[in-house]
Q: What sequence folds into this?
């Protein structure tokens, strides 16, 4: 009403306006306008209603993440800015999404796994080949799917894994396009890759990405569906049953150093984003990466094809970020040996020059 009165008042011809009022009158009008604005502010829930473009809707408009997640990560890597400066916050949904129907979700798994595994090619030539698997297990935040899709594209472009890579992911945006990240699907995927590999020459790079727990497990979850967590002992058994001997395993999550004892041997390079008693950091829907994945995949592996050198660079970078932000050091861990180092070196000689 006050705004309408001001509009009518100002639109009057000069000759028709009443004589000017005093200072007290004008001050009263200004206070009335301010009171109206303050009332609108509280009616809006105590905050101004700014909205941002929904980034994730762009991903789900295509095959989930194939374009959106890599371009997001590439922009972040090239800019050198924090992820929040590159990616605007996701807009909150207008209404609560309907719950997933377990029967529908699990009913798709056989077909999705069949399609994913059918796209894998057997080893090529006489030299070593590399297979890549990303396991994005926590569906509560989009960052894990983004990292899985980005790392797969990176390995296809720079490490010769095209047609030898797959992603298992728990995320609503991908539930109709990608197999779930479950122990059952991971076991099936590793068994299929084990049949395609030469166990004496070929390599597997396995990237596990989720929230970790102090008991040495990784969370496996999606919108209320029930899954068993992934443990180091369970993973070691899957790899042993699949006959996969030469492998590189990166575990990204809090307390991920607890995976080292069960997985390390002379034929395995194991890297973790944190120590067994340390949290990692950087999770969030507005982030393109967690801290370690950003330093390792988006920065270090863009500069070198050495997994161990990239780890050293990433560990140093993460320590600098943590010191700058006064956070508890995550202390990433690594364990390997001469045998796996020699096998990785033989494989790297088959790659084209940078």
A:
């Amino acid at each position: 009403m006050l705004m309408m009165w001001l509009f009518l008042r100002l639109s009057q011809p000069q000759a028709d306006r009443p004589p000017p009022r005093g200072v007290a009158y004008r001050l009263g009008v200004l206070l009335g306008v301010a009171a109206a604005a303050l009332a609108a502010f509280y009616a809006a829930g105590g905050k101004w209603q700014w909205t941002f473009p929904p980034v994730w809707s762009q991903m789900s408009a295509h095959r989930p993440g194939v374009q959106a997640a890599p371009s997001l990560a590439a922009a972040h890597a090239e800019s050198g800015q924090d992820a929040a400066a590159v990616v605007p916050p996701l807009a909150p949904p207008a209404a609560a999404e309907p719950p997933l129907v377990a029967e529908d979700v699990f009913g798709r798994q056989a077909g999705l796994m069949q399609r994913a595994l059918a796209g894998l090619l057997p080893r090529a030539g006489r030299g070593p080949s590399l297979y890549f698997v990303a396991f994005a297990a926590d569906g509560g935040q989009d960052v894990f799917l983004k990292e899985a899709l980005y790392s797969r594209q990176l390995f296809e472009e720079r490490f010769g894994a095209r047609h030898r890579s797959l992603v298992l992911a728990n995320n609503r945006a991908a539930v109709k396009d990608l197999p779930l990240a479950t122990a059952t699907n991971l076991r099936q995927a590793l068994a299929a890759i084990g049949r395609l590999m030469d166990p004496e020459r070929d390599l597997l790079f396995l990237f596990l990405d989720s929230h970790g727990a102090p008991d040495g497990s990784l969370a496996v979850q999606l919108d209320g569906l029930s899954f068993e967590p992934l443990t180091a002992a369970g993973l070691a058994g899957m790899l042993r049953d699949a006959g996969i001997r030469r492998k590189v395993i990166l575990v990204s999550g809090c307390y991920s150093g607890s995976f080292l004892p069960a997985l390390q041997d002379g034929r395995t390079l194991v890297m973790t984003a944190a120590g067994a008693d340390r949290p990692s950091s950087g999770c969030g829907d507005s982030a393109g990466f967690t801290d370690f994945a950003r330093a390792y995949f988006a920065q270090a592996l863009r500069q070198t094809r050495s997994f161990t050198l990239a780890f050293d660079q990433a560990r140093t970078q993460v320590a600098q970020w943590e010191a700058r932000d006064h956070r508890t050091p995550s202390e990433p861990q690594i364990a390997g040996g001469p045998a796996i180092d020699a096998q990785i070196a033989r494989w790297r000689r088959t790659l084209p020059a940078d």
